[in-house]
Amino acid sequence: MELIAKYGKEDLAILYIAKNQGKIVEFVESLEPPIPREKKWVLIISTMYGCPIGCMMCDAGEFYHGKISKEDMLREIDLMVKARFPDGKVPIEKFKIQFARMGEPTLNEAVLEMLRELPSIYDAPGLMPCISTLAPRGGEEFLDELVKIRNEYYPEGNFQLQFSVHSTNEETRRKWMSPNIWTVEEIGKYSEKWYREGDRKITLNFAVAKDSEIDPDVILKYCDPMKHWIKLTPVNPTIKAVNNELKSGITMENQESHSLVQEFRERGFEASISIGDWEENDIGTNCGQFATKLQNGEIKIKDKYTTQDYTL
User: Fold this and answer.
1) DSSP 180
2) What is the percent of the chain where pLDDT is above 90?
């Protein structure tokens, strides 16, 4: 794997672009200001070269060139870890590795291999993997095996599971993501199998569009507030979102007062708006933005793409 460029800000987020056998891959390291790196450091890696799903708001689905092997996922992580911690010792309180950049992790069995080996690869007491999935049909065996791996290798709540829900209207969900995904009811049933007392709550993520149909009562019907956390995010201004005219219902102006937060809380859920920093839209750390532009020949690797040029 050849690192060909990186862009971003040292105190916020850095986007890495690499090439492996002619295929482009992206991965990201990010902070959550004002939390310092020694308290929390997040690595977001790709599990596929592009993505076969094609969600309406995600640029990663503009192309698909196959699954990334366990060895090459490790190379993504290593490029970021070894640059800061050459000895592989990561003294971070919360060292989160999120399988969520490009690709649907539950459709790549190598992710399971990676999860089994991660604890023995790095000396990282704060290691916390995160699987972010839209729960496609075909990923059932993966998710069943994930329960076993979590139980054996990641005790005491050191694992995060996130489902992309986005709407409580099943027709809208199938349109935005894929016709072949679990229903909210099926996600709720799996959550009962996943959750153990002392675990982190399962995250239900909603990218809130301007006219989204999100009914907290539907979520309450199928998902226990004691086992689920509601994360509301903006619809990021990716190429796909713009082309599909998906406008964000969460903006800089209403992020402190969006009514959905209170509606979920009234039903017993922990709920919050998760934005990070709006400047990340300029850096391009939203899913697959840079790789899509590069793949389509819209930009060259030498172009200054973000707030700070880190081209190698």
Assistant:
1) S
2) 66
For residue 144, what are its two tokens?
């069943």
Q: Specify the length of the chain in residues.
A: 312
The answer to whether 290 touches 60, Cβ cutoff 8 Å, is no
Query: Which DSSP category does 200 fall into?
Result: P
In a domain, 301, yes or no: no
Report the alpha-carbon distance of residue 184 to residue 172 in Å, rounded: 12
For residue 125, say if its preceding peptide bond is cis, omega within 30 degrees of 0: no
Per-residue pLDDT for 48 more than 80?
yes
- CB-CB contact of 208 with 234 (8 Å): yes
127 and 160 in contact (C-beta within 8 Å)? Answer: no
pLDDT, tens digit, 9 for 90 and up, residues 223-247: 999 999 999 998 887 778 888 888 9
Which CATH number fits the domain that encloses residue 141? 3.20.20.70
- Is residue 168 included in any domain, yes or no? yes
Domain total of the chain: 1
List the structure tokens of 258.
């969006």
Cβ-based neighbours of 166, under 8 Å, separated by 6 or more: 172, 173, 176, 177, 205, 206, 207, 212
Write out pLDDT tens, residues 109-128. 999 999 999 999 999 999 99
Q: Residue 38: which domain range?
A: 2-295
| Inside any domain, residue 300 | no
Q: Which amino acid is at 187?
A: I
Alpha helices in the chain (DSSP H): 70-84, 110-121, 140-153, 170-176, 184-194, 216-222, 239-243, 259-266, 280-283, 289-295
Residues 214 and 168 sit within 8 Å (Cβ to Cβ): yes
Q: Residue 307: inside a domain, yes or no?
A: no
pLDDT at 289: 60
Determine contact, residues 106/143, Cβ cutoff 8 Å. Answer: yes
